[in-house]
């Protein structure tokens, strides 16, 4: 079967054949142990393609073998604040069991990478379960690796907080009443300066890489964010001084057929830590997510960043896990170097 002819296309969500293939492969993905082991609700299958067609930052890649649906990759555009460039998040990557080890996944990923390069993206990112060894092997072969800044801090883990219909009561810090937060207006000069200050300090922090950002990035990042319709940022202030920053990007959950919020950066200035700054910013983010009909918040956190993990746990986040035997989800990336 290794020599089968594999055809790969960018899905047209308005094409009935593509829509049926997407629904079929997505449901098989859900039924697979690495997708949760249970079929999707019919109401999700009935509307998923229509919902994807309404998401301007979405695209999907389908693979066919002898005109039979063989694989699916669902992708969503994101953004790298440290590079001031877009990226592609590979949200789903699935190959039908009978077509595995036939080069299907490699061909789909090549198609995704070509689209990413056309759109000026700096990297591809994805989440993979720690125990999904076949997938990890395929991703390694394609050039992916676990996201890591410092071996002492470990790799990045993928966490989530599902948004219940009724918000949970989250405890506040002793001094949280002194913290104010604001939804950033990227066109406001003062807000832009505060964002650049916070982002630069975050990059210099060990959990941000420990090195200053290139001045070119700092000079362009706010303007670039202003061009990203699925971006929003929250700034925190203590006594009028910038104290924290959260940069967020809308994503999408294909298994829920609803948007989500990816918390891309979450940083608090060292002198304002343990003052409830992070908690208040996350409350603001969650309020925006609920207003936009999102089903959950997601983020990546370094395995060794124990203070951050403690704060996220307290806020209701947990590591993404489907089956303890497969472990939690790891965050991986492939940087796209010039050809």
Name a few traits of the molecule.
339 residues; Aminopeptidase; seven-stranded mixed beta sheet; 8 helices; alpha+beta
What's a quick, concise take on this entry?
The protein has helices spanning 16-31, 42-53, 104-118, 133-142, 189-204, 215-226, 277-291, 306-315; strands spanning 6-10, 58-65, 68-80, 85-95, 123-129, 145-146, 156-162, 179-183, 231-238, 241-253, 258-268, 296-302, 318-319, 329-335. The chain is of the alpha+beta class and 339 residues long.
Question: Would you mind describing this structure in some detail?
Answer:
This is N-acetyltransferase domain-containing protein. GO terms for molecular function: acyltransferase activity, transferring groups other than amino-acyl groups. It comes from Polarella glacialis. By secondary structure, this protein is an alpha+beta fold. The protein has two domains: 116 residues, Aminopeptidase, CATH 3.40.630; 131 residues, Gcn5-related N-acetyltransferase (GNAT) (Aminopeptidase), CATH 3.40.630. The chain is built from eight helices and 14 strands. Strands 1-2-3-4-5-14-6 form a seven-stranded mixed sheet, with helices on both faces. Strand 2 and strand 3 form a beta hairpin. Helix 1 packs across helix 2. The chain is globular and about 65 Å long.
